TrEMBL record:
Protein name per UniProt: Phospholipid/cholesterol/gamma-HCH transport system ATP-binding protein
Ranges for region Disordered: 277-298
Keyword annotations: ATP-binding, Nucleotide-binding, Transport
Transmembrane segments: none
Ranges for domain ABC transporter: 14-252
InterPro entries: AAA+_ATPase, ABC_transporter-like_ATP-bd, ABC_transporter-like_CS, P-loop_NTPase
Organism annotation: Sphingomonas jinjuensis
Gene Ontology MF, one: ATP binding
SUPFAM superfamilies tied to this protein: P-loop containing nucleoside triphosphate hydrolases
Amino acid sequence: MAQPQGPAGDEVIIDVRGLKNSFGDQVVHENLDLQVRRGEILGVVGGSGTGKSVLMRSIIGLQVPVAGEITVFGEPTIDADPNEATDVRKRWGVLFQGGALFSTLTVAENVQVPLREFYPNLDQALLDEIASYKVVMTGLPAEAGPKFPAELSGGMKKRAGLARALALDPELLFLDEPTAGLDPIGAAAFDELTRSLQKTLGLTVFLITHDLDTLYAICDRVAVLADKKVVAVGTIDELLKLDQPWIQEYFNGPRGRAAQAGKGDIQSERRVDLVEAQAIGGTDDDNRRRPATQAEAD
Ligand SMILES: Nc1ncnc2c1ncn2[C@@H]1O[C@H](COP(=O)(O)OP(=O)(O)OP(=O)(O)O)[C@@H](O)[C@H]1O
């Protein structure tokens, strides 16, 4: 199927049109449109409960909307033919909020879950080899493979979840609040990891976040959810020019201004943070904490 084209002529990987979601009387989305372009990191922001996670679940077929159309790689994901849905699902990876690792499986076994699901005939030696590669790729030490999730720090769990999301060599990555719960150093290191994997692997990334530093550091464009729909999509500079109350409050509030003022410093600090994080084995479990922004320092 021909891929739709975005306004700038870029290939549209995710195309959401007229989406409506509701739970009982509560309407979460109404006439929501969104296009995600190949190769971008799209940040998705909005107040708590505006339906960011429900949007992601709708796109990946876990939430059946009341109305609307969604295509991913040009294929419909709502009421899709099961075989075609499987073909499309192989092309994306998902890091759910909190990591969603299976607690009774080791990190390596968690990474192997999607491989076993989609390629049941792979032999164990190959599964082990792929899992080791993905574990190291996400900055975890090789020794993390045989560990259980309960033995990992919060940051390591996120990396393990990311390793599982990358198991099938996806073209498209969904990240639901990947830096939530991480200290600033861990969050910065995870941002750098996301950016470097996105560049190296040519990924398109749909990234739900509340983290202003993440938006400034790695997102190419930002989509804003409010009033049950996407009220704006653009670079942060473009969004700042809009007279939309939530956008102004979010980006021009004290934390937004601090993130904006320090964005160059934050990015260069974040490169140092990554080196530091790698030096300590990719873990975020040290208790060093320093303010990411002047607002936190205050
Ligand atoms: N399975 C469900 N059943 C009933 N209501 C739901 C369900 N899933 C989500 N909701 C409701 O839909 C709304 C949007 O939820 P969602 O988790 O998408 O918000 P969010 O924008 O991701 O919020 P947050 O930033 O706090 O994570 C919320 O009011 C939530 O209670």
